[in-house]
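Q: How would the structure tokens look for this protein?
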Amino acid sequence: MQHRRFGNSALRSSVIGFGTWPIGGARYGPSDDAEATAAIHAALDAGITLFDTAPTYGNGHAEELLGTALTGRRDQAVVVTKGGMISDENAFITGLDSSREHLARGLDESLARLKTDYVDIYLLHWPDGETPLADIAASLGHLVESGKTRAVVVCNLDKRQLREIAGAATDSPIVASQVGFSLLDRRWANETFALCDELGIGVMAYGPLAHGLLTGAYTRETSFDDRDWRKAGVIFGQPLLTPENRERNLQVIDTLAGFAAEKNVSLVQLAIAWVLAHAPVTVALTGARNTSEILGCVAAAEVTLDTADLAAIDTIMQNAAGMTDVLPAGGTSKATATAKQGA
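A: Here is the predicted structure in token form.
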């Protein structure tokens, strides 16, 4: 398994990370705890070191599962969790809170569920649009000083916000920005990747498989559980699976799968390798519920896409429907509706 540094920092991670939202058991369809635990162990055995979780993934259930699964192997893992969201009993996001008190209390609760004294990375999940970014930077720095996290990262911040908070975080520098990035979603890349290069920080790319769409598992007959956030067909603000776009995008995915087969790799491996081919990505976070899903991602770390491959893929993607190039007007300060999806 290859490893990369987070920008100019000393912190390193496997290039593939294990995303735990699907194993939380809420809003992402059903998941079996025993299979999820086995998947975490298989990921460790395969050389995956980074495990990304959050309190909102099943109202702490994903954190609890991860903490139990890492018993005796905590030193092999880069554990990432987040704070700043408020959820109800069904794990629906009801509000955002970036205050120091909320972040500190949330981290303490996460540490208890994770059965550890510290996390390697703590993230601001979404900014609340009210707390000054300089205050958030100071709060995150305070958590590093407390020893409860070794590094801090921000998530879902637009270019203006990222530059401001990075400039304010002088005592405990921001080591990465976590944003959505996939063949079907390049908005955050267009918005922040050049700035990440300039600032010397890495990127944690979530959703490299477009939240299941790029696995090839969806068919014309696929339906979602009523509580699954993908049921409406809108994937983080993009209507990729709505009735008018679904068939066209499934055809694009079929074409991508054919291209992958020509290179003797799976569609999953092609999609992840494409994400990893873009600087300044440090790690692609892939959600998994079982051993076969996570192990199916591992070989992507060894797939190399040359300039001709990337050009061919871009040509295929020109036929996709529902993609947009830019973030919603107003950036993340007005993205509460998107945040409520819980990513």
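The mean pLDDT is 90.

The two ends are 26 Å apart (CA to CA).

Upvote if useful.
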